């Protein structure tokens, strides 16, 4: 009869085999984790860090983000979220501001190994409140712009059906909406094409 091997003996042998062949290498583990990170996330983090450092330079702050004490960083982040603009001086979308916050947090916690998070830590509550207020303001402006564009589209749709008669409520409404108080002649449509709707 063949020799019976107990389950416990089998696992003991396997554990001995595994422990003797496994090499714990921290660098290899970090390389593995780094390789699994999304390439686009890395690019976005780098892009947002460039924007952060560009803005910091414009306000006279030369230190790297990891060297700024948390109380000063909270104050700077609050100003950044409420004052940052695109290169053409237009406003960012609300989600882009949140993306800035997440990228900066990712850089601080994962790459610089800081013990705090600008997203969750209580010492950054002021900057989070300013981000929330900035997002709210941008959403409101975005709704205003969308409404203005929708009204412009309605106007253009109406004019395709033929000229709106002088003095009709529709024409008065659109003339007030777009500021054509004194010149609501049919030629106004040409002027509407050159109105700058961006803020």
If you had to describe this structure to a student in words, what would you say it looks like?
By secondary structure, the protein is an all-alpha fold. The chain has a domain at 25-140: DNA polymerase, domain 1. It has helices at 7-21, 26-36, 39-58, 70-83, 94-111, 125-160, 169-177, 188-192. Helix 3 (39-58) crosses helix 5 (94-111), helix 4 (70-83) runs parallel beside helix 6 (125-160) and helix 5 runs antiparallel to helix 6 (125-160). The longest helix is centred in the C-terminal third of the chain and has 36 residues, at 125-160. Mean pLDDT is 77; it is low at 180-199.
Structural class, judged by helices and strands? mainly alpha
Q: Which parts are unreliable, with pLDDT below 50 for 5 consecutive residues or more?
A: 180-199
Largest sheet: none
Give the overall pLDDT as a whole number.
Answer: 77
Distance between the termini: 89 Å
Share of residues in helices: 55-70%
CATH level 3 topology of the domain at 25-140: DNA polymerase, domain 1
The string of secondary-structure elements, in order, is: HHHHHHHH
How many beta strands in the DSSP annotation? 0
Which of globular, elongated, flat, extended, rod-shaped describes the shape?
elongated
Quickly count the helices: 8
Question: In CATH, what is the class of the domain at 25-140?
Answer: Mainly Alpha
CATH hierarchy: architecture of the domain at 25-140: Orthogonal Bundle
Approximately how much beta-strand content do the residues carry? under 5%
Radius of gyration, in angstroms, nearest whole number: 30 Å
